[in-house]
Amino acid sequence: MTESTSKPMPESASNNSAAAFAELNRMLFAGAAGKLDAAQNMPDMTQMMQLLSAGMAQDSEHWLELNNRYYREHLALWQACANPQASSDSADPPPDRRFRAPEWREPYYNYLARSYLLSARWLEEMTTAAKLEAHAKHKLEFYTRQLIDALSPANYPWTNPEAIKLAAETEGASLTQGLKNLAADIDKGLVSMTDETAFEVGRNLAVTPGAVVYENDFMQLLQYAPLTAQVHERPLVMVPPCINKYYILDLQPDNSYVRHAVAAGHTVFMVSWRNMPAEMGHATWDDYLEHGVMRAIAVAQDIGGTPQVNALGFCVGGTLLACALAVLRARGDDPVASATFLTTMLDFSDTGELSVFIDEPYVAARESEFAQGGVLKGRELALTFASLRANDLIWPYVVNNYLKGRTPEAFDLLYWNSDSTNLPGVMYKYYVRHTYLENNLRVPGKLTMCGVPVDLSNVDMPAYLLAAREDHIVPWRTAYGSVPLLGGPLQFVLAASGHIAGVINPAARNKRNFWINDALPPEAESWLEGAASQPGSWWPHWTNWLQQYGGAQIAAPATPGNAGHPVIEPAPGRYVKAKTT
Fold first, then answer.
1. Is residue 140 within 8 Å of 54, Cβ to Cβ?
2. Domain coordinates of the chain in residue numbers?
3. Does the active-site annotation cover 315?
4. 41-62 burial code (b ≥16 CB/10 A, e <16)
5. Under a CB-based contact definition with an 8 Å cutoff, are residues 175 and 17 in contact?
6. Residue 375's beta-bridge partner residues?
7. 210-363+425-577, which class in CATH?
8. Of 81, 242, 315, 323, which residue is the catalytic one?
9. How many angstroms separate the CA atoms of 382 and 378, rounded?
């Protein structure tokens, strides 16, 4: 047997640690797990087993083969555990990053990890083999993975040798602190992913100089101070997603997309969506278009003194922008010279893993819940998105924060990720019904918004479409589905990495790559086959593209706003600082 890496624990510390371990287990299951499951709307175990049984019943021979093989492999694992000298790999770490620490090489914990991985593979194979209709199969696969991730022995204090060793070394102090961390997160309703004391909006996040020049019940509009003596005559209006704060586009000076655009000579206006209070629960999708996107464009036109602006939308901000542009064109207005859509869905044929959550029963339940108004809590959406990558965005922090009693590292992007916003329930239920569930937006004239029929082919200005290759929220092939819907000349670009890191990739860091292809064949795969990889960030490529639509060079404005839209307060403004309760 391998010598234990844990030193003996004093009796008093052992007693304290045992109590702390027991309490931590209780709180993990009764507190955190309960809240996480409720927020994710997870089916219960009975429902999952019914789905699995129904799927396997159609191929009982294959089911028997899988179980026989699993039995043989588990028996072999038992034999290797009983006689480690006879096994060539018994001292090797289990093949999973969660079990790389040397403590997992001790025979008992090595067996726990390998047995877990073997059982996980068995469950995955059973799920894959189940013969079900597509949505039920996708749902079963997703929740099976959630179950597998949750049951890892690394996640619980009695079965994590790293946590046990640390508890011994600190005489239980690590677990005591872990309990405090867990209690705080249960109250907050989210697992802490970063040291939240390290950041403050307006102090070291969202610090690009500017001012609020307009506000209403839906948004504040920021105008940023110029960094160049001359600017393009056409301002650039940015529409961020309304489910998070705008400062994902203005994190810190060295990774601020806003600062990059301002440094390129654009007068940038930013929509800062309001974190909606309960009394705004009746606000509609049309309200977000009329009082949000279209109002921002009109104010930027007025302050800039120009008949046209350029516009940019990110994620659902891009969906809102496209709808607003379709409404404006239906009204005979043409206030936007070019549009940029960052990781945006307009065709919702394939919504990736989010489709697991959104089906007819879910939407009907939300419509009933919000029939009289009310708000969808931002934390629920944040937890839903985190659950899509639970092994990256939930369980590592459970282990670090609770089992080891540590504070997570300071990371600006994860701070933003946890700084969620509430949405009006009426607006949200319209959005999920007509996009995710019924995919009506792609059908010309199917939807009426702000009193006019919406046809995306009327969005005929030049457009830059950016997708991210590993995006699990807006799959890049789905983003490519916007190509046949829009009516103007298009540039489609594919960035490396995911939904956020693919977008926030500062040029100065010279990281990753992106793909370009001027041809726009009907199929996304055909586009990729003909695309050329370019090193570094896509930001300079976009800047060069946008320059041709910026208009003449004029003197940079000396002050923000104008007589009709005076400065209200300095950037970043009040709205972005409002916390979700």
1. no
2. 11-189, 210-363+425-577
3. yes
4. ebbeeeebeebbeebbeeeeee
5. yes
6. 424
7. alpha beta
8. 315
9. 6
Q: Give just the sign of the alpha carbon dihedral 400, 402, 406, 410.
A: positive
Which pLDDT score, from 0 to 100, does residue 112 have?
Answer: 93
The residue to which tokens 């690590």 are assigned:
174
Token readout for 59 is 């191929």
Give the per-residue pLDDT at 373. 92
Please check whether residue 275 is in contact with residue 422, taking contact to mean a CB–CB distance below 8 angstroms: yes
Is residue 375 within 8 A of residue 368, CB to CB? The reply is no
Interhelix angle 134-150/45-56, nearest 10 degrees: 130
Amino acid at 468: A
- H or E segment at 267? none
pLDDT averages per 10-residue partition of the chain, 581 residues: 41 54 58 44 58 66 81 86 64 80 91 93 86 81 88 92 94 91 83 92 97 98 98 98 95 97 98 96 97 98 98 98 98 98 97 86 93 90 81 90 94 91 96 96 98 98 98 96 98 96 93 96 97 97 98 97 98 94 68
Question: Which pLDDT score, from 0 to 100, does residue 130 have?
Answer: 79
In contact, 370 and 425? CB cutoff 8 Å? yes
Amino acid at 197: T
In this structure, are residues 400 and 225 in contact, taking their beta carbons and an 8 Å threshold?
Answer: no
Residue 550 has a pLDDT of: 98
What strand order describes the sheet that includes 513-516?
A: 532-535, 513-516, 490-495, 463-468, 336-342, 309-314, 236-239, 268-273, 219-224, 210-215, 569-570
